[in-house]
Specification:
It is built from 17 helices and 30 strands. The strands form 7 sheets. An 8-stranded mixed beta sheet has the order 11-12-13-14-16-15-23-24. A 6-stranded mixed beta sheet has the order 5-4-9-28-29-30, with helices on one face. The longest helix has 17 residues.
């Protein structure tokens, strides 16, 4: 995907060599600038020049808008033929490497497998195409589309008797394994395991696991999945980059790398990004977030590095003291990421008030404490993935050592915990302009929004969740609390920086679909989902460009189409400002331009 054909007959006008050279007043020499894109309707997100008709580019950066430099100063002229242009889409929370993995695994999403029978048929077909003992991997199922039921190990055993099977839930906060997978992990008969803290395993009547592994309990089996090589991850990054640029994505932030038991593909995830860049596979600009468990004390004496908690004043980070901000315009290290709680559709996000009752009979489960319990017998508040003290010690130390924080918190209970930790970090070690992030900020009251705004927190919600997950989230929360779910308008009105993101592959990645849902806020069933939180097209485009750059401290490099910034933009098939808002998702991407070069489509 991603051809870069230009049309020399009509659209690109080569200048004569004499006319192409602009005079340099400093030394009397002449210079040819690279390319000017003309005759466009270019929405810049720059308040000084909100709508221009030409962009001059040299060395990958914008050097002029409109008539600031003459066409004759440029080596090439590209006629946009009146097309609408917007800044390149920057997905502020996109698991690019996992998206690449999803492209090669069995698709069991509701689109591909809307019933349990179809899901099992897909797994059975993949098993028949595999050698005995070879892993069958799938992802994307959602029990909310399967009458509330997760696939069972015995059901997977029936269609894949000779293969270990691993199915990711679409939230990636849980997964299902069959009996062969448990056996590979050292638990024949799906028994004999101890559930780690922050996890949960539903049980059959005989005490064996049903197959579902929630949150940290995933590691019981996921630690035994085939290890990913650095090259394999780099190839996944490349495959995902191909589809990303075709959708108009020019930058991503990947939240959580290097800790496969929690998030990431392998302990060498960042090396995979470097390899992808070295070999031309990195198609989009990437900010990468190491997972919190990869950080450790960094003490010059070497005496206390092995201690479980960092001491105040002690270095804490990656080896050599590397921290947020290292890198360049193509690949840089961003915030440190950690999951504080789970998901709404999995009913594991930490809430202050319990979830609505399940619509299907609840099964017994084993918790980390080893106590069986029934979801139907007690209020389900969800849970933290790590003890609060563990989170606070490490996050405060990371803040002290110059890291930007990016903490996943979906339930309002987890939001309270994270806000407390951020406030404590700033109290003990004040820092200017931290821009600590709360990923998702899924359920937040008016008071929590105001508190987060006062702390300078950057919330990172996902508009696309409204469509793909909204019906399930509404069932889990009930009508009273749904109105606090995945807010956007309220966050903007509170004066917060609100970037745009998808959390792909949890939901679909195309930015225009995401913008559609940010503007329309309707679920897959067609129901309105907190319509008072709808935002305008311009607010959504600002979120996908300027705000996403600000969320990663990169607004000096990108976000708006301004002189001096990177020439990353998208040419659309229709005017996004003029179409019926209910058809935004149908707009096509004519071309994607990164650094002034067409990387997808044609002009």
């Amino acid at each position: 995907m991603g051809g870069l054909a230009r049309s020399p007959e009509h659209d690109v006008v080569p200048g004569t060599r004499c006319a192409d050279h602009a005079h340099d007043p400093e030394d009397g020499t002449t210079m040819a600038l690279d390319v000017i894109f003309t005759n466009g309707s270019i929405h810049t997100q720059d308040p000084g020049h909100p709508l221009v008709h030409a962009l001059g580019v040299h060395g990958g950066r914008i050097v002029s808008v409109d008539e600031q430099l003459p066409r004759e100063a440029f080596d090439r002229v590209v006629n946009l033929r009146g097309a609408t242009v917007v800044p390149g889409f920057h997905d502020a929370h996109c698991h690019l490497s996992l998206l690449g993995e999803a492209l090669v695994q069995v698709d069991v999403s509701p689109r591909a497998a809307p019933t349990m029978a179809e899901l099992l048929e897909r797994i059975g077909a993949a098993a028949r195409d595999s050698e005995p003992g070879e892993w069958v991997m799938g992802q994307g199922y959602d029990q909310n589309y399967l009458d509330g039921h997760h696939p069972l190990a015995v059901e997977l055993d029936a269609v894949a008797p000779l293969n270990p099977v691993w199915l990711w839930h679409n939230s990636r906060h849980m997964a299902v394994a069959n009996s062969a997978a448990f056996a590979v992990a050292g638990y024949p008969g799906r028994a004999g395991f101890t559930v780690p803290e922050g996890g949960r395993v539903p049980l059959d009547d005989d005490g064996s696991a049903q197959g579902l592994l929630e949150e940290t309990a995933r590691a019981l089996v996921s630690d035994h999945l085939p290890a990913k090589t650095t090259r394999a991850v780099a190839e996944q990054i490349g495959a995902a980059g191909d589809v990303a640029v075709a959708a108009g994505i020019t930058s991503i932030t990947e939240p959580g790398l290097g800790a496969p038991a929690h998030l990431g593909q392998s302990p060498t995830d960042i090396a995979a990004y470097q390899l992808a860049r070295d070999e031309g596979l990195l198609r989009v600009r990437a900010t990468v977030m190491p997972y919190l468990t990869t950080l450790h004390p960094v003490d010059p004496t070497g005496l206390t590095v092995a201690e479980p908690y960092p001491h105040e004043g002690q270095g804490f980070g990656l080896d050599l003291g590397i921290r947020s901000g290292m890198g360049d315009e193509w690949l840089r290290i961003g915030a440190v990421k950690v999951l504080s709680d789970g998901s709404l559709i999995g009913r594991s996000a930490l809430m202050t008030v319990g979830y609505e009752p399940e619509t299907s009979p609840a099964d017994d489960a084993l918790s980390a404490e080893g106590e069986p319990h029934s979801c139907a017998a007690e209020e389900n508040l969800g849970y933290l993935q790590f003890p609060r003290e563990w989170l606070e010690a490490r996050l405060v130390a990371a803040h002290e050592n110059g890291w930007q924080l990016a903490v996943h918190a979906i339930g309002d209970g987890a939001v309270d915990v994270v806000l407390d930790i951020i406030e404590e970090a700033q109290r003990r070690f004040p820092r200017e302009d931290c821009r600590h992030r709360i990923e998702h900020f899924g359920v937040a009251s008016e008071e929590q929004v105001a508190r987060a705004a006062s702390l300078g927190v950057v919330p990172v919600p996902q508009g696309r969740f409204v469509n793909e997950l909204g019906d399930g989230m509404a069932r889990a929360l009930g009508p009273e609390r749904t109105r606090f779910c995945y807010r956007m308008k309220s966050l903007l009105e509170a004066g917060m920086t609100v970037p745009a993101s998808t959390d792909a592959p949890i939901v679909d990645y195309p930015p225009l679909s995401n913008i559609h849902d940010m503007v329309n806020r309707r679920t897959a069933s067609g129901a309105d989902f907190v319509p008072e939180e709808r935002i305008t097209v311009d607010e959504a485009l600002h979120a996908y460009s300027v705000a996403s750059a600000q969320a990663s401290h990169q607004e000096h490099e990108k976000g708006s189409l301004s002189v001096g910034k990177l020439a990353d933009f998208v040419v659309l098939s229709e005017d996004i400002y003029a179409v019926d808002p209910t058809s935004i998702k149908d707009i096509g991407v004519t071309a994607t331009v990164i650094g002034g070069e067409v990387v997808h489509g044609s002009l």
